[in-house]
Amino acid sequence: MDKVNFKLNKYCTLIAAIVNILLTPLSSQSQSVTSGSNIKVSGEVLFGTTSYGGVIPTANRINSQTVIDDRVRIDIETKFTSKDRLKVRLETGNSTPLNSNITGTNMTRLGYDGAKHNVSLSAIQYQFPIADRTQGVVEIMGSAYSDNLDNFNPTLANSATGAISRFGRYQPIYRLSNDGSGLTVKHQFSTQWSASASFTAPSLTSANPTAGGLFGGANAVIGQVKYLPSQDLKLGVVYARSYHPNGSGVTGATGSLTANNPFNSEPTTAQHYGLNASYQIGKDTTVSGWWGTTTAQSTVNGRGDSQSTNFALSLAANNFGGKNNTLGIIVGIPPKSNRDLGTSWHLEAIYKVSVNDNMDITPGLLVITNPEHNPNHPPIWVSTIRTTFRF
After folding, report:
1. Cβ contacts of residue 128 below 8 Å, gap of 6+?
2. I need a labelling partner for 100 at 20 to 30 A (CA). Which of 91, 188, 255, 376 fits?
3. Torsion over CA of 207, 212, 213 and 214, rounded to 10 degrees?
């Protein structure tokens, strides 16, 4: 209990300091420049207590363990006109990614892992109108296709309130932006048809943002068309092309290691194709699904192609067992290479309990059968209790 109180005090002090440092100068500036400007500060604190077991056996891995993670985010938003928005995000935390170094596979990664110890800028984004039906988004850092394009998993996509797993949040194709810098254009043709396109490269704030040139270094381009045949049904087709100088990240650090790094760290190009659907049943229930395939090529001659596929189905029932509570179920196959031996199944269930408007508690269970798509590996389980505070 003393450790928990220490962490709470630590992050309450941190939050107060960040708000005090950032909000005061911004408020003074807004009053001196224009009385019409609008500044909004919001925050989110996440704690996760996670246990896992049944890892892929090696001499260097612990078969079961319990870890405690945390993440703090502060979002500062301002508007210069009634139609634009500038968002700056600060982030800190401490998390242990349940990746191949811990469990032997990336299939066990949680949806909120990756937070760093130090307080740092994690996103700078500016949204603005280009024309009546066209919007633009410029991101200096923290680019996320899953935010800028419809990810077709509305209830379970959020890392703090949705699926507990990385793969269960949305199709891996949306992870190719890799938190870099980007430009997105979205156009609404009609009430039924819309399209989006985006280009991303390593963050302009990184130590070497243009290694190999803007298009010669790591980069990705994505395009999506969305169709709404009815008020309750959404359909989407998405395509992406990506280049990975170190050969890794082809499937967004999800699925098997062979699918994610098919040519053992050789420079790799990849073509990605995806289908998405989401259907709302009544007022509170949504069924979503996706299918994706990737064809990757090494830039070293004679290596041939590597192909991978993935799919998932999810059910999200809002107001289940109580107001604002959510039951979520996800079943799927994480990215699987044509070189893998078998098939892994991703089985996930969560139940988000809304304590009040500012606090949720979400117990969740994830089971991966045949990890790394290898029938010789025993199942791995991950259980977590995620607590989220908002202010």
Report:
1. 83, 84, 85, 135, 136, 137, 138
2. 91
3. -70
Query: Three-state DSSP class for 293?
Result: strand
Cα–Cα distance for residue pair 162/146, rounded to 1 Å: 13
SS3 content of the chain, % helix, strand, coil (to 5): 15, 50, 40
Q: What is the pLDDT of residues 68-103, one digit of tens each?
A: 999 999 999 999 998 999 999 999 999 889 999 999
What percentage of the chain has pLDDT greater than the value 90?
Answer: 78
Are 54 and 379 contacting, i.e. CB atoms less than 8 angstroms apart? yes
Model pLDDT, residue 34: 38
DSSP 119: -
**In terms of DSSP bridges, do strands 181-188 and 359-369 run parallel, antiparallel, or are they unpaired?**
unpaired
Determine contact, residues 70/48, Cβ cutoff 8 Å: yes
Residue 99 and residue 109 in contact, taking contact as beta carbons nearer than 8 Å? yes
For 372, the 3-state DSSP assignment is helix
Q: Which residue has the tokens 């290694």?
A: 211
Do residues 98 and 366 touch, judged by C-beta distance below 8 A? no
Residue 38 and residue 29 in contact, taking contact as beta carbons nearer than 8 Å? no
Q: How far apart are CA 94 and CA 302, in angstroms?
A: 43
Task: Give me the numbers of helices (H) and strands (E) for the chain, helices first please.
Answer: 3, 16
**Cα dihedral value 332, 335, 338, 343, nearest 10:** -40
CA distance readout (Å), 132 to 147, 182, 189, 192, 197:
21, 22, 11, 16, 17
Which two structure tokens, joined as six digits, stand for 39?
Answer: 């500044």
C-alpha distance from residue 147 to each of 150, 184, 228, 316 (Å): 7, 11, 19, 19
Token pair listed for 159: 């890392």
Residue 130: both structure tokens together: 């280009």
The DSSP string of 18-70 is HHHHHHHHHHHHHHHH-TT-EEEEEEEEEEEEEEEE-PPP-TTS-SEEEEEEE
Task: List the beta bridge partners of residue 291.
Answer: 275, 311
pLDDT value at 322 more than 70: yes
Residues 6 or more apart from 344 whose CB is under 8 A from it? Answer: 107, 256, 333, 334, 336, 368, 369, 370, 371, 372, 373, 374
Model pLDDT for residues 196-251, shown as the tens digit of each residue: 999 999 766 554 554 444 555 789 999 999 999 999 999 999 999 999 999 999 99
